[in-house]
Specification:
With 139 residues, the protein is of the alpha+beta class. 41% of the residues lie in helices and 14% in strands. It has a four-stranded mixed sheet, sandwiched between helices. The relative contact order is 0.21. Putative mitochondrial redox protein which could be involved in the reduction of small toxic molecules.
């Protein structure tokens, strides 16, 4: 019997006017297209033993809304203590970040890419960092 695992969900917290955020959308759309293309190829020719690691398909959710407080807390856990300031301007701890964000939602830096299923997030303008996160999750 053959079961399909549900697709992972990757969310991009996007800012339309930001060149870095616009690039992140392009990078993620390309990665998504590549993943679904390779999934189709895999189904066409049965590779029971995959030799190359390719990202499995994922659903891309692009939003311009700020995260909810719960989502932000999760994102901060995913990025880790030393990267909190890359997510919320001027914050060094989760408590500071949540307080700053509550007072000023604009303190949330975009783009932020979150892979909810695999517990990873990157707040970066670096396309290679985004691709690294996306491609790491193929296993």
């Amino acid at each position: 019997m053959f079961f399909h695992k549900t697709k992972d969900i990757i969310t991009l917290f996007h800012k339309a006017g930001s060149p870095a955020s616009v690039r992140a959308v392009a990078v993620l759309k390309q990665a998504s297209a590549n993943a679904s293309q390779s999934a189709t190829e895999d189904q066409a020719s049965d590779h029971s033993h995959q030799t190359h690691a390719q990202r499995s398909e994922f659903d891309l959710n692009v939003t311009e809304d700020p995260p909810t407080t719960d989502q932000l807390q999760t994102i901060l856990e995913y990025v880790g203590q030393n990267k909190i300031k890359s997510v919320v301007s001027g914050a060094n701890t989760v408590t500071e970040a949540l307080k700053t964000f509550k007072e000023s939602p604009d303190s949330f830096k975009r783009p932020v890419v979150v892979d909810w299923n695999n517990g990873k997030a990157v707040a970066t303008e670096s396309e290679s960092e985004i691709l690294k996160m996306v491609n790491e999750l193929s296993k």
